């Protein structure tokens, strides 16, 4: 347990739910009933607003608006349904971030894993550019940040501290020089893979090629540690996770993952890795994607995919027939609802295996169709924290989960980098193109 965690734990006994309830609006009106759990959650989020690990607004700007944002209104995006093929409204805007008590955000500069590495490098830079431009357009609400100190200053000033994270190691083109330049452009974490392997690391959702990390992949981790960029292990295989923990000298994060013991999806974190988090100091930022939370939902998706394959095999070249068949299947087999309680179950499990000091939130808004019922968009965080309060989490624990753990991991990575500032960059042989 870190010094900060011990300090927070030491003051936990000074806090009690009634004191929080008295601080809430309506306290002087005996007719207004105050839910102690909601009061506790609000008090925690007022003291430590949410620092979310993963939001995909940047790719929404690209897919919906071709990164043409000079006339885009980020204050209110409730009218964006017409910009999406399925009519989905964006999950995020400034009004709803305020309602959700979000104080800091890692904006994901995601690019598809299907791109070639040179294409991925260019597109990543374009996504960094568009997000920086969006942040600059709203200086009263957003504040660009590259350090833990800048983040905490922005939060103290009532702004959403805005940091950048790369999703997918293909974005560096297998080049440590590009990695260093992405850091210079502001990227403060990198997810090592996305849905496919990189030439140096195995993905959770691809056929293993490297047995975890290649030798070059281990150099990537060492160089990320040296410069202070957080290693993000969402999307990587269990073997890659374990290899990283063997190499890493500073905390890792999982920017948007759940617990595999609760939902068996390969994107979630197994107990073998959770058990090693305290030694590393890393943080699992728990995801809100229903298929990763509710195992019944995961099973439903598998059954539906199997039925699609069956219908397409039965009626090859006849899409109208299998489309009607799937409409009938969907009507007879509604998707199971995923609740806030499912997300809380993952938090409970991670706490039981690793400890509350190693939990954060990384919902994945605007990178999924919807969050759980009651957490469909970024306004839903207070409801999650009220659920945790009902389960017995103290204010100190809620503050750890909302942002203090994530800030601590970022600061620890910065401090490690500062301590090795005299070390020279890792050099590798350049790969030449024939």
Automatic annotation (TrEMBL):
InterPro entries, A to Z: Metal_Hydrolase, Pept_M19
SUPFAM superfamilies: Metallo-dependent hydrolases (SSF51556)
Molecular function GO terms recorded: metallodipeptidase activity
PROSITE patterns the UniProt entry points to: RENAL_DIPEPTIDASE_2 (PS51365)
Keywords for this protein: Signal
Superkingdom, taxonomy of origin: Bacteria
Signal peptide from the UniProt entry: 1-21
A Gene Ontology biological process term: proteolysis
Listed name of the protein: Membrane dipeptidase
